[in-house]
Amino acid sequence: MSIADEVRAAYSHLSLQEKEARNIALASVLEPLSEKAGCVTRERDAGKNTLPMFLAAGVNIFPAYAHLTSFLQEQEKPEGMYLFFHEAVLLSKAHRDGGQINLGILEFSFPLVAAHVLYDPHSNESPDFLFSKATALLHATTPADVSSFYEGKKAARDISHAFRGKQYPVYEHDVPTVFDYYQQEFEREISSSGHPTGRTHNRQFLQGFPDIQRSWHAYHASEKPFLEKLVDAYHAVMNHPDNLGIGAGLGADFVAVTIYLVLTYPSNDMPLR
């Protein structure tokens, strides 16, 4: 057995809880290392947001995703999974400065990670399979999940207010599932002529994560080194006609989840070079 085979074997011997938590944490840490316009990078902070904040937030969420995975393995169904969303939001802030919460990464990754655990834990399918299963999974959540989801959203708001002085509303809807929440929010954004970022954010959950799909396919179409692939994926999202005017942070969130998918569905080559 070569040393490369030993490395692959060491990873394959991890539990699913360890793999899922490692993959989303590593994805969150790798995302800001690429030079994406308007985003925190190795060379540039963005406002009061710094690289150490984002790196710490990425590592901090490891336990919540391990707990989520263990819960789903035991329950074998998605009901109750959003209890760990609140935990992830709180842990994101642990032992770090600043009030920026990587909330978008948490929102997008939660149903995708859950779908992987429940429906494709051995990565026999593909991200395209996962996108449809994650949307279906959101329909299977419960009013208790909606309540836990709101707790996480409000905790993120309170952290931003307490540590950044930033205030924004969390709209609550009397809905039976988390999918219905995103449907209501999407319709509210449309009717109120809301910001393109909000509309694009909520559309992901209703339409099979179209911009994460776009980012994923752009990443694989690029023949550049890893970090430059991420820039190509980012540009594919930001330059798409449907996304004109969205915030750079949303594009970065899509890239972070793309990295999770790259790590979860690896190709034969080593992706990080």
Please tell me about this protein's structure.
The model has no long low-confidence stretch (mean pLDDT 93). The protein has 273 residues and is mostly helical. The protein is built from 13 helices and no strands. It starts with a helix and ends in a 9-residue tail after the last helix. 65% of the residues lie in helices and 0% in strands.
Average pLDDT: 93
Per DSSP, the total helix count is: 13
Query: What would you call the shape?
Result: globular
Q: Could you tell me how far the N terminus lies from the C terminus, measured between alpha carbons in angstroms?
A: 23 Å
Overall strand count: 0
* Helix and strand composition category: mainly alpha
Order of helices and strands: HHHHHHHHHHHHH
List unreliable stretches of 5+ residues. Answer: none
Largest sheet: none
Approximate helicity band? 55-70%
As a whole number of angstroms, the C-alpha radius of gyration is 18 Å
- DSSP strand (E) fraction? under 5%
Q: How are the elements arranged and paired?
A:
Elements: H1 3-12, H2 16-30, H3 51-60, H4 62-75, H5 83-92, H6 103-119, H7 127-139, H8 143-164, H9 178-191, H10 196-206, H11 210-221, H12 226-238, H13 248-264
Helix pairs in contact: 2-3, 2-4, 2-6, 2-13, 4-5, 4-6, 5-8, 6-7, 6-13, 9-10, 11-12, 11-13, 12-13
